Amino acid sequence: MARQKTIFVCQNCGYKAPKWLGRCPDCSMWNSFVEELTEIGDQDRRRRPHLLDTPQRIDRVAIDKELRHKTGLREFDRTLGGGVVPGSLVLIGGDPGIGKSTLILQVVHRLAQQGLRTLYISGEESVQQIKMRAQRLSADSSELYLLSGTCLEDVIDRLDELTPRIIVVDSIQTIFTESLSSAPGSIGQVREVTSRLMNLAKGSNRALFLIGHVTKDGAIAGPKVLEHLVDTVLYFEGDGSHMYRILRSVKNRYGPTNEIGVFEMMDNGLEEVGNPSRIFLEERATDVSGSVVISCMEGSRPLLVEIQALVCSSSLAIPRRTTIGVDPNRVSLLAAVLAKRGGVHLSDKDIFINVAGGIKIDEPAIDLGIISTIASSFLNKPIARNTVTFGEVGLSGEVRGVSQAELRLKEAVKLGFSRSLLSKKSIQTLKRKMDIELIGVSSIQELLEVLF
Questions:
Q1: Nearest partner of 233 among 216, 217, 211, judged by Cα
Q2: Which three-class secondary structure state does DSSP give residue 292?
Q3: Facing residues of 23 across strands?
Q4: Nearest Cα to 235, choosing from 255, 202, 212, 217?
Q5: In whole angstroms, what is the distance from residue 186 CA to residue 180 CA?
Q6: How does pLDDT run across 179-235, given as a tens digit for each residue?
Q7: Where in 338-423 does DSSP place strands (E)?
Q8: Distance of alpha carbon 55 from alpha carbon 52, whole angstroms
Q9: CB 289 within 8 A of CB 119
Q10: Cβ(151)–Cβ(131) under 8 Å?
């Protein structure tokens, strides 16, 4: 047996110790020591693949245009940038019960139907439990194999026997290596297991899907280096009270980031939503104050969503600023701008903001919509139903242009909107005439005059 050695390293300053310490003697940081593998036996060194190739001129490097494997789920392929790339590592995170295992089982079933041998490794469920879910999803491809286990060395032996082209690990926090004595899910275990799986996938040109748990803050559990090691990071978002789920790409070496795929949770699994804008607006109320439709960009996809506001008198010493789907600090800032530049005083008012449909938006283009819906609720005057808004608002009350205005307007025209409020700068950037009334505003004073 090859001898292996482990030490404990402070993750703050790099101090090394032969045993675990509660406090680092160098930087005085508490609970910062993590077990790491520092020496590998000669037998493992001989097995290490030599991946270094001769340097090539960049203009002579050929790219295979059919490199990606299409899954058949257009929304999933969109978030990956067009399909699954062989040799890539994809990390999928999300809240417990959100549908991560259901989604990936549907994906690998479709890939197995194309003749790609697929292995689903679960450290949390038995093969019988996975089979029960597969029956509900009608996932019964003969090229889809199931394996239940948690020891990395045993898993690698099975991979050498089966030689699958697609590998799924559910979840990465349950797999451990015998090289380290720490518990499964610890920082050292997750980092070492992921590194060895990455070398395996890159060396054999296999696509690897990793499912990761998330912390109470919504971040993927484990070291941040886990997200640096993989090629693509996808977050599966949604609320248990809503039927819609959003798959968001936050990192992608093979495509654009911030792409989203929208799915609907049904009895037989997840079904993709082809036109999410229509879904988010289908139950919108009519002739009600405090409601406006905004156009936002999620990656390369324009989305129209409804923002609702409720402004009412506060009985508290410090009025509340409660938001769902948008940054509360951004709402407080815009409320201050509206009071200072627009004369709408809200210092004694509670403000509640909600993005209908459970979607989360983090884009400056929603500023104009937030300003409009707050003013509408405060004045108790509804905004015309056929109006869509987008634009950034500065601290001096000016309305600034945003990118991809033409794509946003095309989506609005497709859904039947006939009027749009946007900045004058955005109108000047349009390259063609749009079949929609364009009203340019340069300040929130002009916005209030147009709306009310």
A1: 211
A2: strand
A3: 30
A4: 212
A5: 10
A6: 877 778 777 788 889 989 999 888 888 999 999 877 655 556 555 667 888 999 998
A7: 349-355, 387-389, 392-393, 399-400, 419-423
A8: 9
A9: no
A10: no
